[in-house]
Specification:
88 residues, mainly alpha, Methane Monooxygenase Hydroxylase, Chain G, domain 1, 0% strand, elongated
Amino acid sequence: MANTSSAKKMVRKIERRTAVNKARRSRVRTYLRKVEEAIAAGDSTGAQDALKVAQSEMQRAVGHGIFHKNMASRKMSRLSGRIKAIGA
């Protein structure tokens, strides 16, 4: 348990930051789920549009340090490959 005033303040800051990061992570997952649903439905154009939105949201999360940049890049690459497979 935090004893000093600075440690107590850090606990408060961490709680606020955790809440913000959870919301951002949840928002990214929602956009990724929309891409997955469009791929499952076989909707190539809808999936491409959803991917474009998800990609910008994912990059924003990477900029805030919520996801690692290589993980985001790998995920976007795999999703775009699956979308291309639908169109072909």
